[in-house]
Amino acid sequence: MIPRYSRPDMVAIWSPETKFRIWYEIEAHACDAMADIGVIPRANAEAVWKARDVTFDVARIDEIEAVTKHDVIAFLTHLAEHVGSDEARFVHQGMTSSDVLDTCFNVQLTRAADILIADLEGLLAALKRRAQEHKDTVRIGRSHGIHAEPTTMGLTFARFYAEMNRNLRRLKTAREEIATGAISGAVGTFANIDPAVEEHVCAQLGLTPEPISTQVIPRDRHAAFFATLGVIASSIENIAIEVRHMQRTEVLEAEEFFSAGQKGSSAMPHKRNPVLTENLTGLARLVRMSVIPAMENVALWHERDISHSSVERTIGPDTTVTLDFALARLTNVVEKLVIYPDNMLANMNKFRGLVMSQRVLLALTQAGVSREDAYKLVQRNAMKVWEEGKDFKTELLADADVLKALSAAEIEEKFDLGYHTKHVDTIFARVFGT
Amino acid sequence: MIPRYSRPDMVAIWSPETKFRIWYEIEAHACDAMADIGVIPRANAEAVWKARDVTFDVARIDEIEAVTKHDVIAFLTHLAEHVGSDEARFVHQGMTSSDVLDTCFNVQLTRAADILIADLEGLLAALKRRAQEHKDTVRIGRSHGIHAEPTTMGLTFARFYAEMNRNLRRLKTAREEIATGAISGAVGTFANIDPAVEEHVCAQLGLTPEPISTQVIPRDRHAAFFATLGVIASSIENIAIEVRHMQRTEVLEAEEFFSAGQKGSSAMPHKRNPVLTENLTGLARLVRMSVIPAMENVALWHERDISHSSVERTIGPDTTVTLDFALARLTNVVEKLVIYPDNMLANMNKFRGLVMSQRVLLALTQAGVSREDAYKLVQRNAMKVWEEGKDFKTELLADADVLKALSAAEIEEKFDLGYHTKHVDTIFARVFGT
Amino acid sequence: MIPRYSRPDMVAIWSPETKFRIWYEIEAHACDAMADIGVIPRANAEAVWKARDVTFDVARIDEIEAVTKHDVIAFLTHLAEHVGSDEARFVHQGMTSSDVLDTCFNVQLTRAADILIADLEGLLAALKRRAQEHKDTVRIGRSHGIHAEPTTMGLTFARFYAEMNRNLRRLKTAREEIATGAISGAVGTFANIDPAVEEHVCAQLGLTPEPISTQVIPRDRHAAFFATLGVIASSIENIAIEVRHMQRTEVLEAEEFFSAGQKGSSAMPHKRNPVLTENLTGLARLVRMSVIPAMENVALWHERDISHSSVERTIGPDTTVTLDFALARLTNVVEKLVIYPDNMLANMNKFRGLVMSQRVLLALTQAGVSREDAYKLVQRNAMKVWEEGKDFKTELLADADVLKALSAAEIEEKFDLGYHTKHVDTIFARVFGT
Amino acid sequence: MIPRYSRPDMVAIWSPETKFRIWYEIEAHACDAMADIGVIPRANAEAVWKARDVTFDVARIDEIEAVTKHDVIAFLTHLAEHVGSDEARFVHQGMTSSDVLDTCFNVQLTRAADILIADLEGLLAALKRRAQEHKDTVRIGRSHGIHAEPTTMGLTFARFYAEMNRNLRRLKTAREEIATGAISGAVGTFANIDPAVEEHVCAQLGLTPEPISTQVIPRDRHAAFFATLGVIASSIENIAIEVRHMQRTEVLEAEEFFSAGQKGSSAMPHKRNPVLTENLTGLARLVRMSVIPAMENVALWHERDISHSSVERTIGPDTTVTLDFALARLTNVVEKLVIYPDNMLANMNKFRGLVMSQRVLLALTQAGVSREDAYKLVQRNAMKVWEEGKDFKTELLADADVLKALSAAEIEEKFDLGYHTKHVDTIFARVFGT
């Protein structure tokens, strides 16, 4: 996590203050539940809520941890300083540190997912708006980087919308999967704590009780979560690379927004670099690199080892913060992307109608010309375009053999862009609904 | 994909014969749809079905491909040899190779998913049976590889069941995601083919039409698919490592089944190696290694490039074949795992009751002894066990200071294993339902 | 490993025949060494060489393995069928299977490295030739895909040469690292076999004795080896992406060679797809995906477990075969790449001299114009080029304020391409030597 | 990078202060070189050194950057505040930001490598000391986690030494590879700056001039660097897992040092968790996760894009800081590892001599007993040990059939541990030299 690629709301989820606040809520709700089932006095449970409005003192907790060498104990000691030693004496009873740590981590991941869901929804809104705006902006479709057939810029945005919408569904599933809590004791047997405590705490925190935990919540959930973030990052890269291609000097069908004040813009007007989407390409790698470690974390020894912990301390914050930033940046890029429809048309016509050669070929065969002859007819005109810089349609209209098979009007029709855009509405209806 | 880690049904999905069969069905159904909307004559569509029972001749197709340098054209040429050149002349009309290739690939992945789903269901059945069999087989729970508190072997199986059940849900989602088809033409605009063709073909093949494709089906679907396989593989590793630990000489709480005939078993009875689960550990890595390339495949240039293709030619078969084999092997290991309950008890008692020290400590404080004094009482008896080989309970029962706080019966009760297993039924109900 | 991405020499290294041949040599040389130190009779060692010219019968060995369930024993049994049971009775004495398997694997990797080294040398020769051919072929250098300053195509080839030359050095180092053998017995203590045997076998096979092995050769060597292949693959991707960019329709500075017979080339002359380099982009991912598993293989349990084996059975052949194919394909692409110098110049001049704006800016300040004024002077002329399609140099020459600072000749000089290429010889001398 | 897994010296390399200091040195040395060749006045070059002892004000630079939106310009502006605007006017002349940024990054990586080299040397010293200390401490060697034949703890340390020594060589190579600098201008042609400047700056900073750069230093160097760190991390994991296994309750052949004051140690003396090596297992994953992104960074578009930058801003510091911490932690673990030779012997004898069964089998066949008969003799005695808890040697000595082949003394000899350790000196000489 580095400041220039971070946004405050996501960063806040991973602050010590937030962590201690979640720990506090877990402990306080657990006390309530224990009082409910008569395991501890009601008064002691109520006393814990005296700290309801406290912002815990991170420096003080660190100070205590320096002595106790144990973060949860340090926090509990500090909590007792607020609640009173005697009143606090039942706090954490029958629980293990992991009950607090793992449940807290999942609360944090769930909240992170909520931000990411909102990010995706914002991105989807931007993509939808730009799709509708450019529904009929014709550009050349390319396979292998080579001109193929016409499409529209709206379809480009629409497919990114559809892809990100799938990511939204995936993320919601991943969020649901990670939203579990566990208060099940040293090896998950509830030997020292009643399952009712887990149920109450989870309900209060918006979590589902983990059906079976050991001391830890099983890490396949986290692996699935980070894998989902990796897929989203890959889709970000997909859009980023499209923009980078559109902005390259020879293509110039679009540019990232360039604020008036940004230095160098007008003395070297050609030198506007797609630095935001290049950056997004790199950020995608950073998000993706958490996937394999998260999967390696699944296989813990017996009921638990702690090999996963250092990995999660890093990828928990870093990956969610980076993805949040990347989604926000991408949304900004999409919203402000400067589109150049004229350049799109100019690019499409770079080879003066040659992109229609396949359609002409098809029309000739449908008009009864043999495949071989049709090929020769198209070929000899195409070569004049390619080698001599002629215009394809003009050449065809001047080719007597072609005119035997196709009327001038039929030839003209083959160059009608409407032929290629006739199903755009159908596709939009599929993607955006009616 | 190597033979020793392959099973025939999954391998068959990836055979050329299967591929050509699927291509054939796509083309034939497409002709039907084109006839339905009047684009081609019904007779020509019907003629294609003459090849309904043909097993296509792979060698012949290869022979043609050697000339045409194009696999789909080679297939179509061969198809015409069966159907008749004239009858076949409308086959593939308006379609591009990718319409066939991508739809076929998703059919293959969907079928692969069906096998993997069945594999997982088989594994779940085995885990459930073993869980119930060993529901009350007590063993020591371990954190960090160190004895913690008692649990049961049934809980171990139950948590693997719960984890694999989550994987089943994930896989079903991934299967649904990958079960799409596209017949949308050169850049996905349906310029040369009606969307109705896509709808019909998909319906016949059990697929959903891809809402918006380019020439290819978007690769985020595949990334999500392979990521899911990676999570499943990580869970396989999780179980494999548990078995490997249980089998190591000093633990010996379980062994992979060792057939009577396997050489060396009885002259070196200690030397039964957990080679199946070690192998599964490696296979998990092989499955997992497809995840990042599948994600790197998402960002294609413009409407498509073909960088993803070589990756998929490899990971499509290799990853599904390996995972299928691994799941089957794991199921076999689970079904036949030889469990040694006596060794479990012996291990638990390695330090003569010391695993109960925490419970005694808690009991002392609850009986009113101060935390510090309780600690000292437990400590002095624990050290006798640790250093002099005494029995913990015996020592406690002989310690007058302990007896001031706890009666002999109370001390005895602290060593009752039932304390630790009292919620096993609750957990089983959560995992397996009532 | 799939046939279309494989070449026979590399495939042969991984054939069962080659493997058994290497096993045979290990065993035969080991017998010699044991005879040398008097551990077995000389006659028995000599007898083993009776099989010197035998091509081992893979089917027969498989047949035996089906019974013995052990590959090395199956081979030894078959070897005895050639040598005679009695004569062969000392073969493999004191050795373990891993002595044979691991030493063989390293022989195979070493031979694979030799092919890859030759591949790289071939690629380097091609890059060098193309570099010299196009040393002075000017093209625009691009940062961020945006025109920056002129460079030459020769420099592009030269930097790929320098990069691949580093890869050659890395590969030679990796080859040296992997060229070790071990004949050290069950846990590497030489309890049952004298170190002299290891020394002799290694010397005969061109290997260095592993200084300390356990039962296996340590896997950090293999991790370093596959990591090196991953770096090479990434450099392949680097070159591939350059070619793909050069070939895209709007750039068209180069094209992969397109044989006259390849269908569709002339009827759609614009539609020549860079499929070879797209394929290389995918192959690079396939090579790279072996790196993490190879690293995960390093941590074996105690003296060895067999988790690495399934990984290596796959990545050993697949990764080396894929990389060999990729290097050969890339060499072919480089050798035959069709370069379009005219298009390079046309692209450079797309914005009629604007790429020189920074140089003009610098010249103005050096001529005493304040930075702010210089900027304004450049800006107002640049905008005429950008917005009105004027020529930059013409505008400058017509701008009285500019002419106050720079003479017409000085302005002309700023557009001299020789300014940018003056150090090409220096760089070539650095890269290729004098 | 998180504080608890960081050490100050490595962190300092990545501080803004260090970065600006290196930028300063690059610029100042560049001015000297430009003065040397007469491009700028000597006085101006000398003036830059007025800032020689300045600690640059990071906050002030940030303030300027907030306006200029460009980090290098902000730094240069601040530098002029120290040197004087007029004196500083030739600073950075003809250079691009990347000349500074990339050269600085390589200086940082080189310094990081120096620390890591020192770390490795420290680890090697610890491993060597422990190896010599426990050269003759016999323990059972294990394959597949199952007892195989005796080895010594010294050999375990020695093989870790040999592995880390290879890592040291790899790291030195990687350091040498990354120790390059480039001052070659916008696209690497030296159009605006003489190669002599690059040569001087590199010489002053202990770097080699990059033979051919573009605007950036080629990223295959960085890929090789991070791949090397990934291999080292994998070796750390290898040692960590050995320790974790040794410490697990049932094995208890070693324990991480446990300071007297650490809570809970004596009331639950069995509960000493190998948390340091578990942590190292996780840290290894964190280091390794940088390898693939570093390789993905190699393929930049044309002369450069900036996709690599965000990746490097993260993995540059994070990976080196984590690896430095991990090596230091591992060294500490190795130095203080508490070894339990008695437990090693007890473990070895868990099955009362059965680990010698293979040696007895061999001895019987060498004594002329047929393989089948020898197997039966060993088997029947082994089963008594396995099933009835008898002692293997005792049984053999009481077996008349065995005694027909082997004398009592010969049987006794088979249980001599010296047989297994006789080549330890040889191996030590190979590893540590004479």
TrEMBL record, chains A, B, C, D:
GO terms for biological process: 'de novo' AMP biosynthetic process; 'de novo' IMP biosynthetic process. It catalyses: N(6)-(1,2-dicarboxyethyl)-AMP = fumarate + AMP; (2S)-2-[5-amino-1-(5-phospho-beta-D-ribosyl)imidazole-4-carboxamido]succinate = 5-amino-1-(5-phospho-beta-D-ribosyl)imidazole-4-carboxamide + fumarate. GO terms for cellular component: cytosol. Its EC number is 4.3.2.2. SUPFAM superfamilies: L-aspartase-like. GO terms for molecular function: (S)-2-(5-amino-1-(5-phospho-D-ribosyl)imidazole-4-carboxamido) succinate lyase (fumarate-forming) activity; N6-(1,2-dicarboxyethyl)AMP AMP-lyase (fumarate-forming) activity. This is Adenylosuccinate lyase. It comes from Roseovarius lutimaris.
